[in-house]
Design brief:
The chain is an alpha/beta fold. It has helices at residues 52-70, 105-116, 162-174, 185-193, 196-201, 233-240, 247-257, 284-309, 331-339, 358-361, 368-376, 407-447, 451-463, 466-469; strands at 7-12, 16-24, 30-39, 44-45, 48-49, 76-81, 87-102, 123-129, 133-135, 138-140, 147-161, 178-184, 203-208, 213-219, 222-229, 273-275, 281-283, 319-322, 344-346, 354-355. The radius of gyration is 42 Å and the shape is elongated. Cell division protein that is involved in the assembly of the Z ring. May serve as a membrane anchor for the Z ring.
Length: 470
């Protein structure tokens, strides 16, 4: 059965392109109807598209797979944008009134427009996170209608390299997939993973991705800071390949034996080892020394970003980890040692209840951003085909007279009808006259020879009879 009401979303990350389609239920849960993914490691690096052709091919494949599962066509999709160059930049715009008055909407709009005119070298503003306005010495979330003489608009511009958005749009254009809306991926993720209480009291969300780690800081339900580190889970995997193995084997060892705080058992007489696919034995101490060193570097950079945000001592709800890299054993304890923050937890699934495809969507946190994009969508993405509906047995409606009120056209139409009727009358009379003439001739033939013909024949017979000729 075809599905005609759904929301579709696509996430482009460094390791994969994922597509999803589903609907939001009235109780806040999400019903997933279709899911597909394609490997993206060869043409997307650190969230940036480097090969538009291959990206377009992957997008086409994703769309076709989703449409096959939905048994319907997709008209548009919600798309998340992220990447290494994504970050926030603070800006302030001030205005002083000649005398104290009421702050108008026009004044606020002009301040917002001036904020967007701030020059950025090779960067473009993707979105603006709403902040407070300072009116005289008071902070206001909504300044319209407040009395004051001096107003300062505080803005947090979300910026990225201009090529990030351009390459993404070109890829979707080439794949002939319409973008319903371009969403900031870390914000969609935070709205899906963090609770309202966590955002209000102060919380940092750390998303450990494949090639990047994203840090988002919230306070009073407002995004205060956003930064992306060019380090992720694949960085650890590539370090493990120094043990002379392929990345695929290194990833398996990391997932199975990796530990951010590994300690050798003192009672063990022989060192613990793990075995690779080719039969080599590697000591767990050697493996985890590599993992621990890189994990320590990543976590140190995360803590440094929290300090740069200025909110490291205002995070009353602590820090929330998510993403595939957050599955590394003891990563929470390792960060406690780095930051001295005690309140740390890992979210491997969004706070909404997921129905459908839960085996691949809610087990390791790798699809939380995709689910966040789906939850952020609010428009039906199904391709609606408009067809004239004609119920069976109902007569076809008569065409509408578009010129019914035009008197000149009415007169022309009446004259044409009268001329047509006159021609039909004359034709009918002509045919009737011809019919009568034919009938008259046929009757005369049936009567036989006339009196004149009979007399003439009789006289002829008498004159030219055989007796007279003798």
């Amino acid at each position: 059965m075809a599905t005609t009401d759904f929301i579709a979303a696509i996430e482009l990350s460094s390791s994969k392109i994922s597509g999803i389609a589903g609907k939001k239920n009235s109780d806040g849960s999400i019903q997933v109807l279709a899911y597909a993914r394609e490997d993206a490691s060869s043409f997307i690096h650190k969230g940036v598209i480097y090969n538009i052709d291959k990206t377009a091919q992957a997008l086409t494949s994703i769309t076709n797979k989703l449409e096959s599962q939905l048994n319907n066509s997709i008209a548009k999709v919600y798309v998340g944008i992220g990447g290494q160059s994504l970050r926030t930049v603070k800006n302030a715009v001030s205005r002083t009134l000649e005398e104290e008055g009421i702050i108008s909407q026009e004044l606020v709009d002009s301040i917002c427009d001036e904020n967007l005119e701030v020059p950025l070298a090779d960067m473009s503003v993707l979105d603006v996170a709403p902040q407070e306005y300072k009116i005289d010495n008071n902070l206001q979330a909504d300044p319209v209608g407040v009395a004051g003489q001096h107003i300062t608009g505080q803005f947090l511009n979300i910026v990225a390299r201009a090529s990030l958005k351009k390459n993404l749009e070109h890829s979707f254009e080439q794949a002939k997939v319409e973008i319903a809306d371009l969403l900031i991926a870390p914000i969609a993720l935070a709205n899906a993973v963090l609770t309202e209480n966590e955002m209000r009291s102060g919380c940092a969300l750390v998303d450990f991705g494949a090639d990047t780690t994203t840090i988002s800081v919230y306070k009073n339900n407002i995004l205060r800071y956003l930064s992306v580190l060019p380090l992720g889970g694949n960085t650890i995997t590539r370090d493990i390949t120094s043990l002379q193995m392929e990345e695929q084997d290194a990833e398996k060892l990391k997932l199975q034996y990796g530990n951010a705080l590994y300690e050798e058992e003192e009672e063990s007489e022989t060192p613990a080892v793990c075995t690779t696919d080719d039969g080599r034995a590697i000591e767990l101490t050697t493996l985890n020394n590599i993992i621990e060193a890189r994990a320590e570097e990543i976590l140190a950079n995360v803590w440094n970003q929290l300090q740069l945000s200025g909110y490291e001592d205002k995070l009353f709800s602590g820090v929330v980890f998510t993403g595939g890299g957050a599955n590394l054993k003891n990563i929470e304890e390792a960060f406690r040692k780095q930051s001295k923050i005690e309140k740390i937890k890992t979210m491997r699934f969004v706070h909404n209840t997921i129905h459908g495809f839960s085996d691949v969507l809610a087990k390791d946190g790798m699809q939380n951003t995709l689910l966040g994009l789906l939850a952020a969508g609010n428009e039906n993405c199904c391709l609606q085909e408009v067809k004239p509906a004609q119920p069976a047995g109902n007569p076809t409606p008569k065409p509408v007279d578009m010129f019914g009120n035009d008197e000149a056209l009415k007169e022309q139409e009446a004259a044409a009808r009268a001329a047509k009727a006159q021609r039909e009358k004359e034709e009918k009379e002509r045919r009737e006259k011809e019919r009568k003439e034919r009938e008259k001739k046929e009757k005369e033939k049936k009567k036989g020879p006339s009196w004149f013909e009979k007399t003439f024949n009789k006289l002829s017979n008498e004159i030219f009879s055989d007796d007279d000729m003798k």
